[in-house]
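Structure tokens please, single chain.
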Amino acid sequence: MSRRILATCALPYANGPIHIGHMVEHVQGDVWARAMRMAGHTVHFVCADDAHGTPIMLRAQREGITPEQLIADSNTQHQADFRDFHIGYDHYSSTHGEANRALTVRIYEALRDTRHIESKSVRQFYDPDKDMFLPDRFIKGECPHCHARDQYGDSCEVCGKTYTPTDLIEPYSVISGARPVEKESVHYFVRLGDFEPMLREWLAERRQAGGLQVEVVNKLEEWFSDGLRSWDISRDAPYFGFELPDAPGKFFYVWLDAPVGYLASFSEYAAEAGLDRDAFLEADAAAEAGTEMVHFIGKDITYFHTLFWPAMLHGAGLRTPSAVYVHGFLTVNGAKMSKSRGTFINARTYLEHLDPDYLRYYLAALLGPTLADLDLDFKAFEERVNSHLVGKWANIASRCAGFVHKFFDGRLTDAIAPELRQRYDDAVARLQPCAELFEKREYAHAMRLVMGVADDTNAWIAEKAPWKMAKDESQREQLHQVASMAINLFRLLSAWLKPVIPATVARAETFLSSTSSQFGDVDMPLAGHVLAPFQPLLTRIDPKKIQAMIDDSKSSMNAAPAPAATPATATQPATPTIGIDDFAKLDLRVGKVTVCEHVEGADKLLRFELDAGELGSRQIFSGIKAAYPEPEKLVGRNVVFIANLAPRKMRFGLSEGMILSAGEGGADLKLVEVDAAARPGATVR
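Here you go.
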């Protein structure tokens, strides 16, 4: 029976670019949506940018633009990255829209009117310099448990313990460096405990239906035993978001209106496509229509999506999720992604060097239904793509297409011999379980089955040796049979790979002159069918391209914003102290700017040429474009640069040092200047 499903992935935050860690989730969701469609189901796949919150507001201030402009630019970039990774969203929106505002207010008012919302006075940290209340992640200090310094206000990244910001030792504002003070404010809360019976029932239903993983169910049981705390849903001005309709100066916390973006994005899409919105969103209508709503999320946001989200939906008369599928994180070469090692890779940087289907296949070959983390091992990545996609799958077509064109005018045999038809039917039967494996998100298992059939097909081709048959005219019919069956098996494998590597399979389908919209389309082999000329489908990964991607990711650090402010009043330093010998390792020199210009294709970089005296001329790229829109005016000024920093190869050229600047980032940055009488190349002491 065909199913009707609304599928979503967690909303990327509009404050930064898409990176390869995001791709774990969005590839998982996209493969699932494509596979379910090929299994005969209707899937509406939507997403949006999470566009509200203090970080958006502060970044916009630093860059001298409005938050609306910032999130619009980010949305354009995010959509381009997902599109170029072949993530096939039917609709991609933003939480800063009227559809989202209306649904958010509806949910709030429904909870308020049924007395599930309460207001109470809370004490929280306030930045006296910036005149604003501070979100937890904008406060740092010493962990009260393990005493690690520079930890955020909600949890310690060293020992993993959680706490409140007021528990921190020597706290400071990340924004200004000032020591925060406690101030009282009225906040609004959803009484989550009111929904415990409903949530337990929902949990039992999801567990029975397979809509929650065992690990998630176990974690939910722990949270129930700990007691469900009321959820703070408001923030004080200044804040970029939606204002509460009955509380001027109070704004909906981003974690209230962000997931509503799932429903708002679908509402917009339904209006455009003429779909019955209520059949997917309203509780009674969805129950009658038998529709489903499936979320793909990371394990760090499990609490919200499995407790608060279903509770607030239920309280507003909206349908609750049919399934919440949780995945682990992505590590690179066995470690957390790192900017300094070049393994924190933005999606666009990857796309400048490598085919997106390579990463899609590699992730699919690792993904299962558990919360286990995945590791992008670059050597394994290279070997798996080269071996599986090039050496096994594409190799079948490249080995046999030439025979069909050379000897049979590109036409497959009209009648397939019975013993070969049996080989095809056996392969069809072996691959049938893949449909269920895709549905259960057991992609790695499905890929093993696909590559197992590819292995056997290549072994069979080697056994038949069509290249030898081609030399003997008396074996022309046998050659035609073998080459035709090889192409049909290639077509069969292509259909099962299509959800994973859609763009590459599209090229294969051009060669085959045949497309498959459902898995069942390839249950019968083609006979008497004319092929298009064969073109190579993909090339082996060159390890030099991987290294170039890593190098570009490292060099992007030069364009990164300045680090957050350090504490102004803390008695302990925010960073480790160093000795005079450590400082002496830096070769700080005076450089006179002889050339300063914009870098074509770079959003944040300026290219400097410095007269460094006895050191000669130095080219340096610096990420201070926002602060100096007229770079030619910097010519003739003396600056300070690190002369003994290892050169970095960037895609715009070689950067031979680092120019020092001060400020919080963006337009706030200012060059560290030296007296005009200083000699170029002079040592800064």
